[in-house]
Specification:
single chain; alpha+beta; 22% strand; HIT family, subunit A; binds adenosine monophosphate
Length: 114
């Protein structure tokens, strides 16, 4: 989609630090990390947010969760633990309207989620 930051990153028009890629997903380091490990997993097709999940093919949704696992594995946090966060909409402070999953870890995370 035109004028979508993450679509531009996926297309390589805007640089990113790639962590993982497969047919349906792309993962790269967050530019403003909120934890020692902070990677964003995005579907290659444009989906505005998790609030559109009912319109998204099951294989794309499954690929996103599986990519989060692959990232956790390659980042060495699969055993220590990690958090997957997907902000959807204004109250969640979603700032990029292309569905994405924050994979956070590499340190003890806050018990508070909100
Ligand atoms: P959210 O606030 O949940 O929509 O998350 C958007 C995330 O994208 C934020 O954590 C930003 O730091 C991150 N971000 C914005 N621009 C870039 C970029 N060019 N490269 C990597 N991460 C970015």
């Amino acid at each position: 989609m035109e004028n979508c930051l993450f679509c531009s990153i996926i297309e390589g028009k805007i640089p990113s630090t790639k962590v993982y890629e497969d047919e349906k997903t792309y993962a790269f380091r967050d530019i403003h990390p909120m934890a020692k490990t902070h990677v964003l997993v995005v579907p290659k097709c444009h989906i505005p947010s998790a609030a559109s999940a009912s319109e998204v093919p099951d294989d794309v949704l499954a690929a996103c969760l599986r990519a989060c696992q692959k990232v956790a594995q390659s980042e060495g946090i699969i055993e220590s633990g990690y958090r997957i966060v997907s902000n959807a909409g204004p109250d969640a402070c979603q700032s990029v309207p292309h569905m994405h999953f924050h994979v956070l870890g590499g340190q003890k995370l806050s018990e508070s989620m909100a």
